[in-house]
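Fold this complex.
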Amino acid sequence: MKQTAIKVQEAYKVFNKNHRLQWRRRSKNDQDSATVAVDRVSFQVKQGEIFGVLGPNGSGKSTLVRVIATLLLPDSGKVSVFGHDVVRESIRVQRLINRVSVEASFFKKLSPIENLSYAAHLYGLNNRKARVRAQELLERLGLEDASIGKPVEEMSRGMQQKVAIARALLTRPAILLLDEPTTGLDPHSKREVQTLVREVREQDGTTILLTTHDMMEADKLCDRIAIMDLGKVVAMDTPARLKELVQTTNGHEPTLEDVFLELTGKKLVKQNGNGKEES
Amino acid sequence: MVSTALHEMRASYAFVERNIYLVKRYWTWEMVWMVYSITNSLSVSYIGMGMEQVGGGDVDGRFLVLYLVIGTLVWRYLATIFYWITDIIGLERWEGTIEYTLMAPIRRITHMTGQTMFAVVYSFLFTSVILLVTVELFQIDLDQANIFGATVVLLSGSFSFVGVGIVGSILPLLFPERGSQMTHVIIATLLLISGVYYPINVLPDLLQKAAVLSPATYVLQGVRSAMLDGAPLGSLWPDIWPALLIGAIAIPIGLQIFGIAERYAKRTGKLSRNG
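Structure:
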């Protein structure tokens, strides 16, 4: 029986726009200016699973990933990684995870190899072995030898993202958090990354939590998908079962996009027989 | 336990290596900063010579020059350490790497240790270059100076400034937009009260009392004794132990405050906002 890699129980995260020091209970004014980013979300991800989180901008996907990555403290609820609480055992959790964010997060004047060397040392890896692995990963991701010694700022967005993925894989994490990893990549590079994600799961048994806007990518890669809207999970299942939630229309098999629009676009306004609006 | 220690050592080295790479890549900026620092030191030091003309023949211009040279060099050394420590967060915000670094499985003291090791060596080398230029330009005779003793005093002051720097580094953590600039307030205050360019007893009473709390006060006294009077190491102890004591207090307090600030930043989402 596979272990539970990620367990999220009633996770709740709110941001107070006033950014006051929260030494006291919030007043009504503070509550009015608050944004609930993650609203009592619960799910579990099994070891070795590729779990997708789909949602429109502002749905809470990145906030959720940051909570799991120990970068944000949840206001309530419990999040654990292989049984370790992300708040109370943050260093144990950090040893098990790595994250690729949507924005390339590098020392821009340094080369990919220098950035990866920094990462290797941060995670306590042997320098020589890390360099060999770094070169292998960069080659696998299609980066030429000539480019890996140049500053990252001279690389395209797509190449920077590949370096970010190589950096995350360098540490052989038990859990990989991919926050829109293929955004900005050309179709060929996107396919390379998707293939690598599958290989990483198959060869290393890595558990992957992936947030994406790309429905086809989610359909292709994910074992299960959670659809988020306004901080809540509105549906969660395998891609096939999610598609069953939407009826076939005009012989057209429903896609995840149909499911997504059906569930998150539910506030579309219709007119009844009297010409009055109803939701 | 051994593997944990090895991991932490490698992680500390990560910051040393990274900073070396950054200094190499930003070398033009380093050159500019060196020229600025040298001209700044010379500008202040020439006041000593100017005082002979302005103040009349009773003023010993050469002594004043040496007094001011020591002030500028010691201050340059300590301030450089301070800024490298506050850059623990400032640099990460600038580069957009703050989330990546703070997600790494390392203790914050490991992070600080790596940055400190680099800061002390860098500041020492940087200040040495300014010293060589200044000695050459003013033809300063260091034969009577106790350079070893001065170095010991400087190193004792390094730890206290690391502690002050750790406290200062919470400002870029809490205030993404202007936190790095806010750290100038701390260094400006210490500059005022520590006797960098003038004896402390010319200050108002309140500021003289505040000077007791500044580690730079003791470092400057000790280095001046060693360099101007050739004071032996044993006689420098009254200036060494307060600097060490302030460091022994400031570093753990700084780490505690930084931990609180980090948790606050993680609770309010301030990590993801880059400067």
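Chain A touches chain B through 40 residues (CB under 8 Å).
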